[in-house]
Write a structure and sequence with these properties.
Blueprint lengths: L3 E2 L4 E2 L4 E2 L4 E2 L4 E2 L4 E2 L4 E2 L4 E2 L4 E2 L4 E2 L4 E2 L4 E2 L4 E2 L4 E2 L25 E3 L4 E2 L4 E2 L3 E3 L4 E2 L4 E2 L7 E4 L4 E5 L8 E2 L6 E3 L6 E5 L2 E4 L2
């Protein structure tokens, strides 16, 4: 399986792009970035220096993934989503001098296995999005998102749970804290605000 890189894309020679991956028009992958196998980097997407991306990750058109972000296997980043890296962003220091590399400490957004970030969502670093979580389109994530959580709004708050299929889970009427996926039938258990798959 070969790597497909469009002629208008910019991939730094020090970056690694895994087998079967595709990098589309006007995308940019910076120095020392590492992408796993079978990834898709959409038109105009940006991957910062040293970013780590697992296998089967999709970055949709114009997604911006700033260093030192880490995306695990199976992550989806929707169109125009942004993963920031500076909690106190400034162009200049208190004396009015333009900030350069080394004048500030970048912080990471970490996105765990199978999680999805909806179109135009923003993750304000430092923050972690849990396994198989779903961030709604337009949401602004300012605190950690639990595994399987469905979050929405500005700032993002949990409004439900989702399973691996991305479908909103349904709570059993006669078993509080027991949730199931209407698509796959998988059962989940909720305890103290934490959801786990049964079995």
């Amino acid at each position: 399986m070969s790597v497909r890189i469009q002629p208008t894309a910019q991939v730094d020679p020090s970056a690694e792009v895994g087998e079967g991956s595709a990098v589309w028009d006007l995308a940019q992958i910076r120095e020392e970035a590492r992408l796993g196998r079978s990834c898709v980097v959409g038109r105009g997407a940006y991957v910062g220096p040293g970013v780590r991306i697992g296998d089967n990750v999709k970055l949709q058109n114009y997604a911006l993934v700033y260093e030192p972000a880490e995306l695990a296997d199976g992550v989806f980043v929707g169109p125009s989503a942004v993963l920031t890296n500076d909690f106190y962003p400034r162009s200049v220091d208190p004396q009015g001098r333009q900030k350069r590399d080394g004048d500030w400490q970048p912080v990471a957004v970490r996105v765990a296995e199978g999680a999805s970030l909806g179109a135009r969502s923003v993750c304000v670093a430092p923050v972690r999005v849990g396994r198989w979580a779903l961030v709604a389109a337009g949401a602004v994530v300012t605190r950690d998102v639990p595994d399987f959580a469905l979050v929405a709004g500005v700032p993002a708050r949990r409004i439900g749970w989702v399973g691996r299929a991305g479908v909103r889970l349904v709570e059993h009427a006669d078993e509080p804290g027991v949730w199931h996926c209407p698509e796959t039938g998988t059962r989940h258990l909720e305890q103290d605000g934490v959801l786990t798959e049964e079995g």
